[in-house]
Amino acid sequence: MSSSFKALGRLLRYARGYRRTISGAIACSVINKLFDIAPELLIGVAIDVVVNQETSFVAQLGFESPRSQIMMLGILTFVIWAGESLFEYLYQLMWRGLSQRLQSDLRQDVYQHVQQLDMSFFESRPSGQLVATLNDDVNQLERFLDGGANAIVQVLVTVLAIGTVFFVLSPLIALLAFVPVPLIIAGAFYFQRKASPLYADVREKVGVLSGRLANNIAGIATIKSFTAEAREAARVRADSEAYVEANRRAIRMSSAFIPVIRMGILTGFLATFLVGGLQALSGELNVGAYGVLVFLTQRLLWPMTGLANVVDLFERAMASTRRLFNLLDTPCQTQDQGTQTLSAPVRGEVILSDVHFRYSRTHGGIKGVSLTIPAGQMVALVGTTGAGKSTLIKLLLRFLQPQKGALYLDGVPIDQLSLHELRRHLALVSQDVYLFEGRIRDNIAYGRPEASDEEIIRAARQAEAWDFINALPEGLDTLIGERGARLSGGQRQRLSLARALLKDAPVLILDEATSAVDNETEAAIQRSLAHIAHGRTVIVIAHRLSTIVNADNIVVLEHGEIVEQGDHQALLALNGRYASQWRVQTGHASDVSGV
Ligand SMILES: Nc1ncnc2c1ncn2[C@@H]1O[C@H](COP(=O)(O)OP(=O)(O)OP(=O)(O)O)[C@@H](O)[C@H]1O
């Protein structure tokens, strides 16, 4: 329970900027509720007018004739109903407006924070879970603010306002009618305490389910090719059932609440009804006051049945709020505090000095790599799978932080540069090409949205992508589908190369750009490599050694360490791991130990 109020406190602090709207919304809810219970008072006053006529309560206010008293009550009734409607309109407008603003702010803030988080954060959880938090959890909060917040305010006003009327009219009956109130409130909090972990569980389960769905839809080709549909359907069923079960436990708890509350209400109502009736009969209590008390007991106690729903909404919303703030509180390991800038023109010299990095989960990584890549050179990283090639690239991009050693760009330690300053000088064609849904033009221009068509076409030509783009009926305006689904693998590779080239960074990094493509694309990339290497530093991770024979330096990695380096001829002459792998790949295999 306390954690829910903590979450609420946090939410209120977050919503500081909306303090005026919140106060306005609360004020409108309060006024609306006061108007809402006023007609019951008027009924009592009307009964009093009819029974007591010239000696009635209204007569004492100066309206002597019973007719003028009734007319006055009619006008008052009109004003009260009109006021109630007006303030209902206003509080709806304010609460809903607030809910829209807050949900949008929170979603944007959480998204912006999540975007800054380290790659390891994304590797350690299913993306669907994040999407669930950004969508479902934000929506829960919206639902609470749309209705729940107003309901809480109005229940409080009801108790206070009706309580005051009761004590004025008959303190004895007030006591009797109010006996169930603490019980009901205690019951609501008891229920809330029990329900809280159940709702946390519901949110958890929905996250798992969304994660599974998103993963499966993304991996649908794999599922189909392994004919694993039945197995996946069973897993989705299990997750979906777990969600149903978690909800069922929460529902069982919330459903028990209302019948219990109703019995409490009955006690209060009966007490007012019987004791008040007897007092009215004996003349101790005014008939009108008796009417008011009987009506108001209902108005007091019935809304409390709604308390269960409100607490329900509140709990769900606070479970979601906690998840959102947890994301917002997730610290970013990669410090972006560098303030140095590189002096122009950036040459693109990269130096690694005794760099160590170990992944905590797999103990893979790199150990003590020192390497100088002079500006303008092409360096190839080769080595067996898992040797640490991609890890080196991630360290250079500062997706990872070295545990020891340092990396330099143009002589400046890269952690002294802001991430923006560092990354704008590095262009990456990554292992898994990611294209965005949209037009070819926007994908190529992703790094420089302001690029002209001429520049886009030049980059496409350099990446040997222009021929196929030009052959498409809609050319650069062709929509390529999610992740570029309407293009071939080779075309996707070429587009991502064009995208990197258009960025025109002094350092170009190609991570296995040639391993997953057809021979023609490989040849095309090889041709463009020779062309694009001109005037910039190129770091290539290659599996096909034929693509990098012209590299200035070929670095062979094994188990995270450099074991050989030199140009193609030098490495062949060394007759070590590179030479043996070269023989395997060119068909002169006498030794099959892989590089
Ligand atoms: N995110 C990660 N978390 C934990 N361990 C990792 C992670 N990424 C890579 N590793 C481990 O670190 C080692 C080096 O991986 P890396 O991806 O750098 O190899 P690579 O040389 O690029 O391999 P490949 O050529 O197959 O892509 C491997 O043993 C791998 O299991």
Automatic annotation (TrEMBL):
Domain of life: Bacteria
Domain ABC transmembrane type-1 stretches: 24-316
Keyword entries, A-Z: ATP-binding, Membrane, Nucleotide-binding, Transmembrane, Transmembrane helix, Transport
Pfam families according to UniProt: ABC_membrane (PF00664), ABC_tran (PF00005)
Topology in the lipid bilayer: Multi-pass membrane protein
SUPFAM superfamilies for the chain: ABC transporter transmembrane region, P-loop containing nucleoside triphosphate hydrolases
Transmembrane segments: 70-91, 149-167, 173-191, 256-281
Stretches assigned to the ABC transporter domain: 350-584
Protein's cellular compartments: Cell membrane
PROSITE patterns (alphabetical): ABC_TM1F, ABC_TRANSPORTER_1, ABC_TRANSPORTER_2
A cellular component annotation (GO) from this entry: plasma membrane
One annotated GO molecular function: ATP hydrolysis activity
Listed name of the protein: ABC transporter
